[in-house]
Task: inverse folding
């Protein structure tokens, strides 16, 4: 998994797979989901990042793994 923030484009892209995207669907205004040929999600793009997260500090991104239940 890879997270890319392009400040110049004001966009964020989350790569979930190295498989090439065969189609893209806009699921919400400015939010796009890329699918591979088997219809699996391979990436998610979010435009207008500064408007969606105006206080985002890219130096302080946190990643959290939630433990499995049970």
Result:
């Amino acid at each position: 998994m890879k997270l890319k923030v392009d400040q110049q484009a004001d966009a964020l892209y989350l790569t979930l797979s190295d498989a090439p995207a065969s189609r893209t669907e806009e699921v919400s205004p400015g939010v796009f989901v890329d699918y591979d040929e088997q219809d699996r999600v391979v990436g998610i793009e979010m435009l207008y990042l500064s408007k969606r997260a105006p206080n985002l500090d890219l130096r302080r991104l946190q990643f959290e793994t939630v433990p499995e239940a049970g």
Remarks:
- The mean pLDDT is 91.
- Residues 49-52 form the longest helix (4 residues).
